[in-house]
Amino acid sequence: MKHTAAFRFTTADARALYLSVCQEMGDVGDRSSARVRLAGDDTLILEVTAADIPALRAALNTWLRLINIAVEVREIAVPSG
């Protein structure tokens, strides 16, 4: 049985976030896979699929952390205001 989680991030920086994390798509592991894609100009979609719940949790921890770090670095590099 496969388990899937999907997240939608709406932000003006969606393209920059996508370019920051898309390089990691091949590095998930044997029991899980992740896909990031753009939906329009302002939406980043993350889809994670795993063979079991622990693998899904681990993959989500990794991917949500990657996206969070990309957001934080973007805020430092391009401060608003």
In short:
Helix content is 41%, strand content 28%.
Molecular structure report:
The structure is a single chain. Helices cover 41% and strands 28% of the residues. The protein has 81 residues and is of the alpha+beta class. The longest helix is centred in the last third of the chain and has 25 residues, at 53-77. The radius of gyration is 13 Å and the shape is elongated. The termini are far apart.
Spatially, the strands of the biggest sheet line up as 1-3-2
- What is the tally of helical segments? 2
Main sheet: strands, sense, barrel: 3 strands, antiparallel
- Uncertain segments: none
Order of helices and strands: EHEEH
Q: Tally the beta strands.
A: 3
Which characteristics define this entry?
2 helices, alpha+beta
Walk me through the topology.
Elements: E1 3-10, H1 14-21, E2 32-38, E3 43-50, H2 53-77
Antiparallel strand pairs: 1-3, 2-3
Helix pairs in contact: 1-2
